[in-house]
């Protein structure tokens, strides 16, 4: 059970309502074996989404045949372009010269020039390839936006084999949004009530001195007005919050958890004060679960940040890339290529099997939200949760209406 607050500011009193909570435990790592090749996760990803894309391709380009790369024949000059068109389904590989390379990292030992740190890996020399379980082919064509594509994306392409063994792409499709299980189950409370969830990201207490922002945050959540000593850090702050409210805590990029995703839950010894309370639930990053009748999913920011490094499209904001991963049906498509990930073998847990009602990303520079309506009527609320240490802002979500708004704690 999980409890969330509805506050009466007139009398500064708090009312707690109980609501069901479930962690899908999708990203919990069982046997920790790191001696496997990363190619296995790509094969698992392709096999899991191939049938979905075949159906999607037939729906979009019904008259054309789905082939493997090995089934592509030699060029036939007597055929028209329309007669040559076929459908290929595979994994996108984006060749980028500026992408980090372990071979380049060895340059220090060879007394060569080390590779410089970059905020993005994109350049005009980037090339796209499509791989299936057997072969790889280079993709060309003006109908394919190279910068929108990232390594690890499973997609279908319509086109024809051209000279030089390349594939000229005329159109492409992605898996699309997961089907939504059903409409939100009957309301547990009268419609005039609200069931609120507070989304908070980027406290960064290790690198920031305590300030009134954190005090105001704690007082607002706990509905108290008591003084917080300046020397308290995260455990003390969190213990005060969990004493009155249920908290789901996900690790972030610089937190004491494993570096590769999925990051595993915090160990109890890290937060001894807070772990005394059953109201604290430690989760993975990324995470997906259910609160009441709503499915929530999201990450602390690394997957979206890495996509932005690979693509380097200034006109695309984090909320745009968050929406694209929804249509790509994958939480972290650039893992394990440029984003460190556990070497899964049989399955790829980052594939979206359930359609979330609320899909969030943390540690962004600013608050943003968007409501996405899928082809089958799916309704998903996208939320960018700003870094609290920079913006002093958290996000409130109403589980019933999916309405969302920021709340800022200023001195």
What does this structure look like?
Keywords: DNA replication. This is Similar to POLD2: DNA polymerase delta subunit 2 (Bos taurus). Residues 227-368 form the DNA polymerase alpha/delta/epsilon subunit B domain. By secondary structure, this protein is an alpha/beta fold. The protein folds into 2 domains: 2-32 and 179-408, 4-Layer Sandwich (Purple Acid Phosphatase, chain A, domain 2), CATH 3.60.21.50; 39-173, OB fold (Dihydrolipoamide Acetyltransferase, E2P) (Beta Barrel). 18% of the residues lie in helices and 27% in strands. It is built from 8 helices and 19 strands. A 6-stranded mixed β-sheet has the order 3-13-14-15-17-16. A 5-stranded mixed β-barrel has the order 5-6-7-9-8. Strands 10-18-19 form a 3-stranded antiparallel β-sheet. Strand 13 and strand 14 (294-299) form a beta hairpin. Helix 4 packs parallel to helix 5. The longest helix has 22 residues, at 39-60. Mean pLDDT is 84; it is low at 1-12, 185-190 and 225-232.
Topology diagram in text:
Elements (H helix, E strand, L loop, with lengths): L1 E7 L4 E7 L1 E3 L15 H22 L5 E2 L13 H4 L1 E10 L6 H4 L21 E5 L4 E5 L13 E9 L3 E8 L22 E4 L12 H11 L11 H9 L4 E3 L30 E3 L4 E5 L2 E6 L2 H10 L6 H11 L29 E7 L3 E6 L5 E8 L1 H4 L1 E6 L5 E5 L3
Parallel strand pairs: 4-5, 7-9, 11-12, 14-15, 15-17
Antiparallel strand pairs: 1-2, 3-13, 5-6, 5-8, 6-7, 8-9, 10-18, 13-14, 16-17, 18-19
